[in-house]
Amino acid sequence: MADYHQFARENSDELARAIESGIPSSLRGMMWQLMSASKDPELEAEYARLLKESSIHEKAIMRDLGRTFPHHDFFMDGQGIGQENLFNVLKAYSLYDPDVGYCQGLPFIVAILLLNMPDEEAFCLLVRLMATYGLRSHFLPEMPGLQLRLFQFDRLAEELLPVLHIHFLRQGVKSSMFCSQWFLTMFSYRFPLDVVFRIFDNVLATGIEAIFGFSLALLQKNEESLLTLKFDDILGFLRNKLFDSYKVESEQDDPVYLVDVFVRDASLVRITPFMLDAYAREYQDAVREREAHAVEMDSLRNANRHLTAQVKSLEDSLAQLNTEHCDIVKQLVMARLENEETEGELVRYKLLYADLMHKSEDAGSSHRLSNLRVGK
User: Fold this and answer.
1) Other C-beta atoms lying within 10 Å of the C-beta of residue 233
2) What are phi and psi for residue 70, nearest 5 degrees?
3) 19: closest CA among 9, 6, 28, 7?
């Protein structure tokens, strides 16, 4: 172990085969730290300091402690060292990296580390996983790393398992419905611990991209069964029956799985760095296009709001003009009515005048006739 890094440089192929065959349980914790170069006395001292502080996430962490491997002896006791160490590492990390804080999924990763090393070493390895192995971006707001991994997984499935990929599309099954849990917990939720340890072996040895090989190997192994199922049954199968194809008959109480076969199957899935880089570029292009579309939509929404405000202003002005128009019309009608009444009075007076004049003329005529008679 003392010359691990020199041995790794000089015998990389031999070391890869040895890791693929499985790290002995007694050496696993030490090997994980050597492979990741996570041993850091200064960071361990930082961990001890952080334990003395309080975190705003403590209540959320406490709620999830009992849900993390509740049937495992090390974590079963609510007052035991297992849950205490789990709480301490999660609290310390929430203080160490406030942008991430605490997220569901982290307890399962930390629990796997604690099953193989003391809490201060588990904290250092967690920091290494998050910062160097790219796991941190899975837990940031908006989960950009997880979104990228899901996109890459979809493209790999389309390339390597095209028939199953099309079947999932037709059934409405999205990778986020099952892969999100796999990637956020690094398969430690629901998967057999022997399998999880071997997955961690390979991730720490080769990088976080190893999760794709294990994911696709599982789907490939169960492709024939999955192709016969509909939406609900597919999700149920992915949750509960995925490892049945690797299970062997045994008289033991706990199920026994062909872990070596599963790891070998995963190693045979041909995924190249070129493929992952190409898919990453596709994803970034899609993100830029989506962001540009979002900016355009925001601009259109702002323009629409402005036009709506203008229309409202014009409608208010029109309503005011209509009100004023009605008042003017009313005034005109009243004026016309008054004018008609005046004209009626004038006609009446003219008629009266004419009648008076007619009577006056009649009276004058009668008077003249009377005078004539008297003169005769």
Assistant:
1) 14
2) -65, -20
3) 28
Q: Among candidates 112, 111, 72, which has minimal Cα distance to 199?
A: 112
CA torsion 283-286-287-288 (nearest 10°) is 120
| In contact, 92 and 124? CB cutoff 8 Å | no
In sign, the C-alpha dihedral spanning 344, 346, 347, 348 is positive
What tokens does 216 get?
């696709």
The model's pLDDT over 204-245, given as tens digits with 9 standing for 90+, comes to 998 999 999 999 999 999 999 999 999 999 999 999 999 999
Cα distances (angstroms) measured from residue 125 to each of 31, 40, 44, 108, 150: 11, 9, 10, 14, 24
Residue 223: CB atoms within 10 Å: 13
The DSSP annotation for 174-196 comes to: -GGGTHHHHHHHTT-SSS-HHHH
Of residues 149, 141, 173, the one with CA closest to residue 238: 173
Whole-number Cα distances in Å, 6 to 9, 12, 18, 199, 370: 5, 10, 16, 24, 162
Number of H helices, E strands in the chain: 18, 2
Highest mean pLDDT among 1-5, 166-170, 296-300: 166-170
Under a CB-based contact definition with an 8 Å cutoff, are residues 130 and 190 in contact?
no
Q: What is the mean pLDDT of the chain?
A: 89
For residue range 8-20, list pLDDT tens digits in order.
666 777 777 888 8
CA distance 191 to 206: 21
Tell me if 200 sits within 8 A of 186, measured CB to CB: yes
Q: pTM for the full model?
A: 0.77
Tokens standing for 200?
């961690």
SS3 248: strand
Q: Are 137 and 268 in contact (CB under 8 A)?
A: no
- Which three-class secondary structure state does DSSP give residue 55? coil
Amino acid at 271: I
Of residues 366 and 348, more confidently modeled = 348
Q: Is 362 exposed, middle or buried (0-12, 13-18, 19+ CB in 10 A)?
A: exposed
User: Residue 198 class from Cβ within 10 Å (0-12 exposed, 13-18 middle, 19+ buried)?
Assistant: buried
